Amino acid sequence: MVATRVVKTYGSGDSAVSALRGVSATFARGQFTAIMGPSGSGKSTFLHCLAGLDTVTSGTVVIGDVDLTGLSRTGLAELRRDRLGFVFQSFNLLPILTAEENIRLTARLANRRVEPGWFDTVVNALGLRERLRHRPTELSGGQQQRVAVARALLTRPEVLFADEPTGNLDSRAGAEVLSFLRTAVDEHQQTVVMVTHDPVAAATADRVLFLSDGAIVDELAEPSVDAVHARMRKLEG
Ligand SMILES: Nc1ncnc2c1ncn2[C@@H]1O[C@H](COP(=O)(O)OP(=O)(O)OP(=O)(O)O)[C@@H](O)[C@H]1O
After folding, report:
1. Three-class SS of residue 85?
2. Disulfide: which of 86, 133, 134, 226 matches 138 by Cβ 3.0-4.6 Å?
3. Can you tell me whether residue 72 is helix, strand or coil?
4. What's the whole-model pTM score?
5. Which residue range or ranges hold the ABC transporter domain (predicted)?
6. What DSSP line would sit under 141-200, residue for residue?
7. How many domains does the chain have?
8. Which residues have CB under 8 Å from 71's CB, separation 6+?
C-alpha cells in the first residue's frame, strides 16, 4: 500500500482545516506500522484516507494495484469488503447478535468462506471461547473489543486498519490483542496499520510513523517503548 502526497482539507475558505498536508508513506506487505502523534495531528484522518473511509482532497492511495482515489463509491465499498479489515474504537457490534454471529458477520456479508479451523484459531487466541453465545451488552469493553478484532481477522484481510485497538482494554487484554495482530503479520503476511497513543502498543509494531500538524515528521524502526516515549516527548514539547 502506497500513499503519495495525500492532502486532506476539511471545509473551505476561512474555516478550512488542513488535516493532512501531503503525506507520503509505503506500507509493505506483512509489515506492522503504528501511527503516533499529538492530538489533532491527523492520525485518524490519515487512517481513514488509507482505508477508503474518507476521500482525499488530493494525492493517491494505492492498495495492491488499485488506486482508491479513482474508484466509485461501489468500487470502494467492494474493495473494503473484500480486501480490508477494520477495528475501531467504537466496536460497531450489532446488539441483537451473539458474539459468534458478530464475528462471522463480515465474512458472511462478503460471502467469504472461512477456512476450517481458522475460526477456532482466532477465537481461542483471543480468549473468546466461553463468550460466543453472549450478546455485546453481556460482554465487558475488553471482550467487545476482542470480538471486533476477531471479526476483522476472520476474513484474513490484506490490510487491517486499527484505530486505538487497545484503548479500552486493561493491559493484559491489550497485550493479547497486540500479540494477535503481531501473529497476523508474522504468520499470515497481513499488513497492519494501527493508530495508537500507547508507546507499549506502538513498540509491538515494526515501525512507528510520527505525525505532527498533518505531516510525517519522524520514523522509528524496530521501536522500543523507551525510544517511542522519547520521540513523543520531543514532539509534544
Ligand atoms: N470532519 C471534520 N471536519 C473538520 N475538521 C476535522 C474533521 N475531522 C478532523 N478534523 C480536524 O483535522 C485535524 C486532524 O484530526 P484527526 O482526528 O485526524 O487527529 P488525530 O491525530 O487523530 O487526533 P486525536 O489523537 O485527538 O484523535 C484536527 O484539527 C481536527 O480538528
Report:
1. strand
2. 134
3. coil
4. 0.91
5. 1-237
6. HHHHHHHHHHHHHHT--SEEEEESTTTTS-HHHHHHHHHHHHHHHHHH--EEEEE-S-HH
7. 1
8. 52, 79
Grid coordinates given for 178: 497486540
Pocket-testing residue among 7, 17, 161, 232, ligand 1, by greatest number of atoms within 8 A of Cβ: 17
Residues 64, 158: contact at Cβ < 8 Å? yes
> 42: Cβ below 6 Å to ligand 1?
yes
Q: Give pLDDT tens digits for 193-232.
A: 999 999 999 999 999 999 999 999 999 999 999 999 999 9
The conformation of residue 115, written as its DSSP 8-state character, comes to P
pLDDT of residue 220: 97
Closest atom of ligand 1 relative to the 197 alpha carbon:
25
In the chain, the amino acid numbered 111 is N
How large is the ipTM?
A: 0.96
Instruction: Identify the bridge partners of residue 125 per DSSP, sorted by sequence position.
Output: none
**Is the per-residue pLDDT at 77 higher than 80?**
yes
CA atoms within 13 A on the CB side of 80: 19
Say which CATH number the domain at 124 has: 3.40.50.300
Scan for cell 484459531, then name that residue: 121
C-alpha cell at 64: 495492491
d(CA 145, CA 154) in angstroms, rounded, equals 14
